[in-house]
Amino acid sequence: MANSKRQLFLKRRLRVRNKLRKMNRGRVRLSVHRSNKNISVQLIDDVQGRTLAAASSLEKDLGIVGKNNVEAATKVGAAIAERAKAAGVEECYFDRGGFLFHGGIKALADAAREGGLKF
User: Fold this and answer.
1) Mind listing the UniProt keywords for this protein, alphabetically (predicted)?
2) pTM
3) Taking each helix axis from N to C terminus, what angle separates 70-87 and 104-114, rounded to the nearest 10 degrees?
4) Range 79-107 burial, b when 16+ CB lie within 10 A, else e
5) In Å, what is the CA distance from 63 to each residue of 11, 59, 68, 76, 82?
6) What is the H or E stretch that residue 82 is in?
7) Which of 37, 8, 24 is nearest to 94 (CA)?
8) Residues 15-37: pLDDT tens digits?
9) How are beta strands 28-34 and 92-95 bridged, if at all?
10) How far is Cα 116 from Cα 62, in angstroms, rounded to an integer?
11) What class is the 27-114 domain?
């Protein structure tokens, strides 16, 4: 029986997360979640089990009108980079989950890098 799209997504997500877990040297994780309408990102400290900073396209102050597109992802990436600096984070691992690295995910990563995050 062939794998469904959901099963393939879950396999990809576990593969990415396990690779990050092996490489983790005390750095925080930049975790991305994308839905059909919105995109959100969190800086997570896995050692302490805390979220250090977060940004989402649902936030009114970013000026995004609930769209999951490259423009919205770019604004969210810039916002998380700014909030990471405020939290004292400069380096992190990029956890794209099971999402492919193109489109909005790539735009978010590029904007976060331009904002000063290193991953």
Assistant:
1) Ribonucleoprotein, Ribosomal protein, RNA-binding, rRNA-binding
2) 0.86
3) 40
4) bbbbbbeeeebeebbbbbbbbeeeebbbb
5) 34, 8, 13, 10, 16
6) helix 70-87
7) 24
8) 988 888 888 777 899 999 999 88
9) parallel
10) 19
11) alpha beta
